[in-house]
């Protein structure tokens, strides 16, 4: 395979995208036994095609499968790794809930978790795609630990499992994987070993790897970036009103930034100008050739129409500013 | 010594209740249906809790988070983006300060709802009202108006004090005040004390000061000038506080936060009893409680933990 050349300021998503209303209905009916597995699989595939076409129509350079098969990012992985069980759902904010898993037995890699997702996406998309993998630290932080002697031990066990998944993705030809670690900034005293665990998860994986962190204090993570073996950091900034964007100046020069310019928890659609000026401010302090443009976080909590419109605006603003930038775009190297 | 099992802050809002609220907020069901169904659900839960606990809060059933009700009701505040609540995978709408903060309408709905449910139960069940403390509130909001944190904290203290007074007028005998930032490294004790005094001077109901997720970062003696009736401390993530508390000279009653509200592992009744026994010489009244609000664990686990609290505290009743 040849390397992938991207336009300057490539646009991408963080991962999740709202499920079509009909898919939600199919999944509901499936639980009551009104659909069989094969029909649900067909619906999931169709949903991926639908949300992929939303992203392509909006002009996204690097789309994802919208995580259509995943109810929730930690839950999905925990369901596919041996040693987890589930209790009733717990609330995460407002009336949003998730099924927080509990580790009750030694963890066990039971075979690939998301490779199948990537294979299908590749078969229906002729653009470079992004695959997301929930990071070991976040899985550990968002689980109840009833088995391992410490959270650290649990995290490293998870890192070994995620590493096998990363290698399976490389093997399958995935060009670009993003490790999602939204929990990373929450316990600064654990960062030392958390970064080590993430490095273990990406060890000997030669494809492009990014990491997504959101809704936390990034200043805690910056000092560790030098050690971290991923090439991109995708961060939320719109939700915080672009406060403290100056912090990116402290990022090491070998790291790209995925700049979050769209608020995913607010139904109000940004204007092209708002996004344009946010990017403009960013390229004054951060080199455009190392900059990707994305929403703050996964889009799944938004109504689908609004998500699509937000992506369209994001692309429009990015295209507007591209004319003012002389840098070449980044290249994704294929091993 | 009197030993009681009590809740602090919230009981997890059950998924079913969350679904119901979303439907109502999205205009998919009318108010009458909503209220009827909600009351029935809450009644079921409170009945279960009341078997093992003799004091509850309003369970914060109607609160999305510790600050949300006040962003809606205080003048000068608006609801902002989602921010992480301390170090949890739980998020709150940040209160954005856009003008002078003033108390407008009291947010009594949650308290009154639970109280009317409790009245319908047999047996005695005390309810305390919950409020965020002025220090934590002022540090956890997005201040876009005040030129100093001090002025902001004092205005919030006034407004929360008014709120406490309203609650008191409506029958609240104990106000539980959440000040988790007392466990923060960067605690500004001067400001904490000033804002707490301003707040507590506005009403006369008893005050239960609740802290969590770590040890109080100041000498407990520093709190002895304040109008505090019950000191609620975290003994799960800050065991070392136990000796400090046993060593303090004060007339406080003790909130023994010995139930881990962030873990699914159940506590053993014998270890809970052992803890309570150790406090018996020092305190005339002890409340066995979770170490924080219970939003972070599933309902089934919360109920199982409350069961343990009930069993552990019951032996001490004469
Ligand atoms: Zn995110």
Annotate the secondary structure layout.
The complex is a heterodimer of chains A (335) and B (318).
Chain A: E1 4-5, H1 21-31, H2 37-58, H3 73-80, E2 81-86, E3 90-93, E4 96-98, E5 101-109, H4 115-124, E6 131-134, H5 136-141, E7 144-145, H6 151-172, E8 176-180, H7 191-201, E9 208-213, E10 232-235, E11 256-260, H8 272-285, E12 291-294, H9 304-322, E13 331-332
Parallel strand pairs in A: 5-7, 6-8, 8-9, 9-10, 10-11, 11-12
Antiparallel strand pairs in A: 1-13, 2-5, 3-4
Chain B: E1 2-5, H1 15-25, H2 31-50, E2 55-57, H3 68-73, E3 75-84, E4 91-102, H4 109-119, E5 126-132, H5 134-139, E6 142-143, H6 149-169, E7 174-178, H7 189-200, E8 206-210, E9 230-234, H8 241-247, E10 253-259, H9 269-279, E11 285-290, H10 299-314
Parallel strand pairs in B: 1-11, 2-5, 4-6, 5-7, 7-8, 8-9, 9-10, 10-11
Antiparallel strand pairs in B: 3-4
Helix pairs in contact in B: 1-2, 2-4, 6-7, 9-10
The complex binds zinc ion.
Architecture overview:
The complex is a heterodimer of chains A (335) and B (318). Chain A is of the alpha/beta class and 335 residues long. Helix content of chain A is 37%, strand content 17%. Chain A has a six-stranded parallel β-sheet with strand order 6-8-9-10-11-12. A three-stranded mixed β-sheet of chain A has the order 2-5-7. A two-stranded antiparallel sheet of chain A has the order 1-13. In chain A, helix 2 packs parallel to helix 9, helix 6 runs parallel beside helix 7 (191-201) and helix 8 (272-285) packs across helix 9 (304-322). The mean pLDDT of chain A is 96. Chain B has 318 residues and is of the alpha/beta class. Helix content of chain B is 38%, strand content 21%. Chain B has ten helices and eleven strands. An eight-stranded parallel β-sheet of chain B has the order 1-11-10-9-8-7-5-2. In chain B, strands 3-4-6 form a three-stranded mixed β-sheet. Chain A binds chain B through residues 87-95, 97, 100, 102, 141-142, 144-146, 183, 186-187, 215-216, 239-241, 263, 265-266, and chain B through 12-15, 18-19, 21-22, 25, 64-65, 81-84, 87-93, 263-265, 295-301. Zinc ion is lined by residues 14, 182, 212, 214, 297 of chain A.
């Amino acid at each position: 395979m040849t390397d992938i050349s991207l336009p300057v300021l490539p646009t991408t998503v963080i991962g999740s995208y709202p499920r079509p209303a009909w898919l939600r209905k199919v999944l509901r009916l499936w639980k009551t036994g009104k659909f069989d597995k094969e029909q649900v699989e067909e619906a999931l595939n169709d949903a991926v095609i639908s949300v992929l076409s939303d992203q392509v129509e909006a002009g996204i350079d690097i789309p994802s499968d919208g995580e259509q098969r995943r109810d929730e990012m930690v839950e999905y992985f925990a369901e596919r790794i041996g040693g987890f069980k589930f209790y009733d759902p717990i609330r995460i904010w407002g009336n949003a809930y998730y099924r927080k898993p509990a580790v009750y037995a030694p963890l066990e890699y039971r075979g690939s978790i998301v490779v199948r997702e990537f294979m299908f996406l590749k078969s229906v998309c002729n653009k470079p795609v992004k695959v997301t993998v929930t990071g070991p630290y976040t899985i550990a932080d968002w689980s109840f630990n009833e088995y391992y002697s410490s959270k650290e031990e649990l995290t490293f066990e998870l890192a070994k499992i995620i590493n096998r998944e990363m290698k399976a993705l490389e093997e399958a030809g995935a060009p670009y994987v993003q490790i999602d670690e939204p929990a990373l900034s929450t316990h600064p005293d654990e960062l030392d070993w958390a970064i080590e665990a993430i490095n273990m998860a990406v060890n000997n994986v030669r494809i492009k790897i990014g990491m997504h962190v959101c809704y936390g204090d990034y200043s805690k993570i910056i000092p560790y970036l030098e050690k971290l073996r991923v090439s991109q950091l995708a961060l939320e900034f719109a939700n915080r009103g672009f406060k403290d964007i100056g912090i990116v100046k402290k990022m090491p020069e070998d790291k790209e930034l995925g700049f979050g310019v769209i608020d995913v928890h607010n139904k109000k659609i940004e204007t092209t100008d708002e996004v344009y000026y946010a990017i403009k401010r960013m390229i004054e302090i951060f080199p455009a050739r190392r900059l990707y443009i994305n929403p703050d976080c996964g889009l799944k909590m938004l109504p689908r129409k609004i998500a699509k419109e937000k992506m369209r605006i994001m692309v429009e603003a990015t295209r507007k500013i591209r004319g003012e930038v002389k840098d070449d775009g980044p290249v994704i190297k294929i091993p | 010594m009197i030993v009681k099992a009590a809740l602090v802050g919230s009981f997890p809002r059950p998924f079913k209740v969350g679904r119901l609220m979303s439907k109502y907020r999205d205009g998919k069901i009318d108010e009458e249906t909503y209220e009827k169904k909600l009351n029935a659900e809450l009644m079921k839960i409170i009945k279960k809790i009341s078997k093992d606990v003799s004091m509850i809060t309003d369970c914060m059933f109607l609160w999305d988070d510790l600050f949300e009700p006040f962003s809606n009701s205080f003048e000068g505040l608006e609801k902002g983006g989602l921010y992480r609540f301390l170090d949890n995978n739980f998020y709150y709408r940040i209160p954005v300060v856009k003008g002078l903060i003033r108390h407008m309408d009291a947010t009594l709905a949650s308290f009154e709802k639970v109280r009317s449910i409790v009245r319908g139960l047999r047996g005695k069940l005390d309810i305390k009202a919950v409020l965020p403390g002025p220090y934590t509130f002022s540090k956890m909001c997005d201040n876009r108006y005040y030129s100093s944190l001090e002025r902001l904290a004092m205005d919030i203290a006034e407004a929360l004090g008014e709120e406490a007074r309203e609650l008191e007028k409506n029958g609240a005998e104990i106000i539980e005040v959440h000040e988790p930032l007392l466990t923060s490294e960067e605690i500004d004790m001067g400001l904490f004390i000033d804002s707490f005094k301003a707040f507590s001077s506005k009403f006369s109901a008893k005050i239960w000061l609740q802290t969590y997720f770590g040890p109080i970062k100041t000498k407990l003696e520093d709190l002895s000038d304040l109008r505090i009736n019950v000191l609620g401390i975290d003994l799960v993530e800050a065991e070392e506080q136990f000796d400090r508390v046993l060593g303090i000279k004060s007339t406080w009653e003790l909130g023994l936060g010995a139930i881990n509200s962030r873990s699914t592992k159940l506590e053993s009744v014998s270890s809970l009893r052992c803890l309570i026994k150790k406090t018996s010489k020092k305190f005339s009244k002890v409340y066995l409680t979770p170490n924080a609000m219970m939003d972070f664990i599933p309902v089934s686990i919360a109920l199982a933990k409350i069961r343990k609290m009930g069993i552990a505290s019951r032996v001490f009743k004469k």
